[in-house]
What does this fold into?
Amino acid sequence: MFTNISRLLKFSNIRLVPSFPNKLDRIIRLGKDITDKLNRPNCVYKLTCTSCSSTYVGETKRRLQKRIEDHQGNDKKSIVYLHCRDNDHDMDWSGIRILDRESVWEKRRISEALHIGNSHNSLNRKEDSYKISRVYKNFIRAISKNR
It folds into this structure.
């Protein structure tokens, strides 16, 4: 079919170039394996208490698993650890949500601050808000409500 049309158009000085829709890269996929959620670095994450409605938003450069181990007791000053210990509560460790991935520390901190601003019943301290203007926080809240 291609050769017949090509011959007809050749008389009008139009040259056809064949295209091949079934390229090798569509058939063979050599992508990377998906990294387990807990092995991902540079995350903004959210923990939820199973005993109450408290939430915690944090950021880490390290693998998420290492930061979670801190919250589970390796870091006795962790606000999550103290909440669980003092109230006899437990976090939903299997339901950790990754809210954002960002390798640049400043951007990751801003993302964390915005997510903290959108959290209800947050365990986060005031200093975690990273000095984001109330205007931006209200704007982000408005966008989040429309989702």
Helices lie at 2-10, 24-27, 64-74, 79-87, 105-118, 134-145. Residues 37-145 form one domain.
